[in-house]
Amino acid sequence: MADAVVREATDADARAIAGIQARTWRYAYADLLPAEALAELEPEYIEGRWHEVIAAETDTLLAFEGTEPVGCCVCGPAPHEELLGVGGELPRDAETVGLIGTLLVEPRWGRRGHGGRLLATAAGRLRARGCTRGIAWVPEADHATLSFYERAGWRADGLVRTLDTGGGQVREARLTGTLDLHLE
Q: Of 78, 126, 138, 147, which is the most exposed, with the fewest CB atoms less than 10 Å away?
């Protein structure tokens, strides 16, 4: 394997990240999202959103194998609306919870440690912000991603949400775990 690194994304990386998202979602979510929505995932159409994400107060990370961008991750403090319990209450540690908002590795680059490197780098960034644990929302039908987080020591906390995709609904489970990861 060529050198594998993770670095902070720059505005110039927005098109590459849009391509990673488009290719990954088309493969991984073909059975979850409507074909029309997946067909609209052209990098030139979603690149603008990635410019906004990179400029935001979050960390946007980009994984490389050699010179090839192969995965991305967005992390930052968890917004309170992402932390609410069933009764609408915030957890006691709400101010020290981080959110992994996106973690994608193109399937053709999977099983090479890129996801673990991205998650470990994100956990380090969140710890530097004073966070003690993290959360992530994952489609219940995405068994590969659920297993990835479980191998890192994260578990579903029992909360689910349903997203309207315009052609159906996707149920997501909220996972949580320590930022002192146990990656295999």
A: 147
